[in-house]
Design a protein that fits this description.
Blueprint: E1 6-11, H1 21-36, E2 40-42, E3 54-61, E4 64-71, E5 76-83, H2 88-107, H3 110-135, E6 139-141, H4 143-155
Length: 160
């Protein structure tokens, strides 16, 4: 029976270089939301026809995202490696606008905060579309899943 969804996500602890309470909260929310509602269907046909659910491990090595896919019982299925060069700009822009957003929360008007938040969502949406495009020959994912995965990719890029 097919169950094309993610049931567990793990981030490589060695990849995460810096943490604070806000980052941990973002990570927890993104993982919780991802597990609650996602569509994730690897396009590779596994020998026994396994079609989910899946466990993911995400790590960044030498500018590449490693997505390790495993069965529900943690048996390894495959590891996909995705170059992150095209994500450098969206990640940088997302961090910059998030910094502006957190600063605005302390001293800006509601209208200013809303404007920054709309820009933040726009950058996030563009990055999610890029992720869907980059994975199109490997994994079929829906847009909300791509947004949450992009958030986790950003967590793996935070430097103190």
């Amino acid at each position: 029976m097919s169950n094309p969804r993610i049931i567990h996500v793990e981030l490589d602890e060695q990849t995460i270089l810096w943490r604070n309470a806000d980052i941990e909260q973002e990570r927890r929310i993104a993982i919780f939301d991802l597990i609650e509602d996602n569509f994730f269907k690897p396009l590779k046909a596994y020998p026994d026809g396994y079609a989910g659910p899946f466990r993911l491990s995400l790590a960044v090595y030498e500018g590449r995202l490693a997505i390790t896919i495993a069965r529900e019982d943690q048996t390894h299925l495959e590891t996909l490696v995705l170059g992150l060069g095209r994500f450098r700009r969206p990640i940088r822009e997302y961090f910059a606008i998030c910094d502006s957003y957190y600063q605005a929360i302390r001293k800006a008007t509601a209208q200013e905060i809303e404007t920054i938040d709309m820009a933040r969502r726009g950058v996030h949406n563009e990055a999610a579309e890029l992720l869907v495009e980059r994975l199109q020959d490997k994994i079929e994912i829906d847009f909300p899943t791509a947004r949450r995965l992009f958030t986790l990719i950003c967590v793996l890029h935070i430097k103190g």
